[in-house]
Every structure is written in structure tokens, then in C-alpha cells.
Task: structure prediction
Amino acid sequence: MLANKDSAGRKFTVRIQESSEGGYTGQCIELPGGISEGETLKELKTNMTEAIQLVLDTLEDAAKKYKKIIVEIPN
Result:
């Protein structure tokens, strides 16, 4: 499973760009579909957390219809 209680505390890298209109845009490097924006860095971090969780939930839902194995990569 990709998104469950075990994913709590996982860390993701977010590339941040300042927007010419003001505020910030972020893209998760590990999950390219994880994109969001915010007026402040604090708001961007909150929005990116939600975007990343949404991507993980979507991937988990999509994976349910396939035969699968779970592979764990140690730190």
C-alpha cells in the first residue's frame, strides 16, 4: 500500500519557484503529479502536503485493481 499509516512521517522533496504574480509554486520531485501553490511558503507547505497525500491516495486506489507485490526499500 502506498498511502496508509505507515506513510506518516515520510519525507518528500519539493522544488519551489517564486511566481511572477506573487506567491510560490511547488512540485514534488518524487511524485511529479504533486503540484500546488501558495501565497506564502507556509501555505505552500500545507498545500503540498495535501497534494502529495492526494497523489498517494490516487495511486493506492489505482493499485487495488491489479495483482501486486509490495517492495520495501530500506533507508
In short: The helical segments are 41-63. The CA atoms of residues 64 and 75 lie 26 Å apart. The chain has one domain: 5-63.
